[in-house]
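Task: fold both queries, return tokens.
Query 1:
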Amino acid sequence: MCRAVRRDGRGTVLAELPLRPRRIPQIVPGQAATARVAFPPVRVLLLAVLLAALWLSMSGHFEPLLLGMGAAAVLLVTWVAARMRIVDEEGLPVRFLPRMLVYGPWLLKEIVFANLSVARTILAPKLVTKPNVFTTDAPYEGDVARTLYANSITLTPGTVTIDVGDECLLVHALTDEAKRDLVEGEMLRRIHQICGGDA
């Protein structure tokens, strides 16, 4: 198994992370045209609706020209996603959406608290930062859970996901407090709840 090794300036090993080998799809000549996966039209329609809602929420313009350009962009992205065969349960995990309505506000609260903690660390001259690199367990439910967990860590000020493996994540923390909050496992427990784990 491949491993990523983090070292300091003196060559001391800080952390090791097992990495997944990249999976290269095998293409059989003559079968490329018949290997396409058919997705339910409802899933493709839902992707288009979500993209349209995202575009409207970020644009805020309702002029006919801009609406037409937005509709064209949504149709193009939806068509490309369908052609790339990524409108599946992993690319559009619909079953997680109801649970995300609970996780989203909790993550927003954690981001606000982490912002305040980082600001206090920067503004208080007596507080000393202790940056460190460590590994934390990765969710076992699959790529969607690992991606959600890694992005949640990075969105939270004071912590950044450096690399992702099958069994663990390599994380940089600005302070011991940020590391302790992550090691306690509350975020990981909520990821398990969203993605169907028992934790």
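Query 1 returned. Query 2:
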Amino acid sequence: MSEQRLPVDLLRKFEKKLPILEAERRTAERHSAPRLNAFSILGPDERRITSVLSNLLDPSGHHGQGTLFLNCFLRAVGLPEVATFPEKVSITVDAFTDKGRMIDLLIETPNALMGVEVKIFANQSKNQLSDYSDYIEEMSRQILKRHGTRQMPWKLVFLAEQAPETAQSTVIRMPWARREDVEEEGVWAAPFRDIIEQAMPHIKAMRTRSLLDDFLNWIDQTFGNSSMSDDQFEGYAQEISQNFGDPTLRRALGMFMLNKAHQHLHRLAIEAIEKAILDALKKNWPDLQIEPGSTSLYERLIGQHCEWALRRPNWPKGAAIALQNDVRKPFGHVFFGLRALKANNFEAKNYAHMVCVERYIIDEIVTPELPRGETHPWWAWCINSKNTLWDTQFSARLMIESPDGDISQHPDVEFIINHLLLICKKMELLS
């Protein structure tokens, strides 16, 4: 088979399956409207989701199922269940600590104390989890002093898809959805999605079941537990993975992706952008390193204000080149530039590891040498990417428009690389 015929043959293979898939999709839309989801429409943030969890875990909540959800949650983290109802259960939203911080949920039962910190897209603040852990432990001791009984067992649950930055040995990590790639050390509980699924057969009220169906669907959409609406599409993921490595096939895959946008292919495309950036920069500055905690470009752009950052060892502390998503929607608004948090900014005390005490020198020497952009306390210089929305269609367009499917040569990607190269070159003025 000639190289020129490979994309055509591959596209024909997908093309034969598309009419069947499209018919199935239209039928599903007509009879069950699978994309209609109250949670997705409302665009929930940490505060709204915390309110939902508070009501769900409250035995007297609107769900009408008594202790069902609370006991499933307690059992998952190894705490004693609530035996009878109505047994006294106290649930506080935004519980203030002795340091003026707020734990999203603080739950006290007759036999246990549990804090729950909820993260969807936001980052952790400095020592956040260790402060919460210390507070709940001390609260447990105070209960012992007041009632003269044994110290009440307690847990701090971190409901998030990110790793705890502090208190790793005491925090219970509870991911939102199933994650096959999780291998990090720590104390783990079952995914929240699994806990709710285990409770579903015991729910008596149809309205409660319907609400939780929407909740589970939102979790899948938000945290990537299901990149397509049905397992029957798994074959497409395998075929895409096998063929993505050959640049001559990417344009065909991009055309297929526009018809059937697939999260798996989206991730591969973003990873290709990351590799292109690293290859171009490290060619000139081999000592350039990814900042600890930056993980992958794809993972960082899912969250809001989670930058994917690179720096050289000889740069001023806190200074880094970075790409970041500026809104709550994953991949919703991507910009990049030279991050250097001013020491006198009000957020500096919570992000001491990012503070750049030499920011004023960068402002005087480096920033004037860069093209027109924006500056503010967090960024010495920044600019939007040409296309700020990096969704699946953006990735597909890159593959279709790139010469021979090579994403690194697309003008949108070259725009980012060229500016980052310029920043690195101008940073040499400081030495």
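Both queries returned. Flag for query 2: The mean pLDDT is 81.
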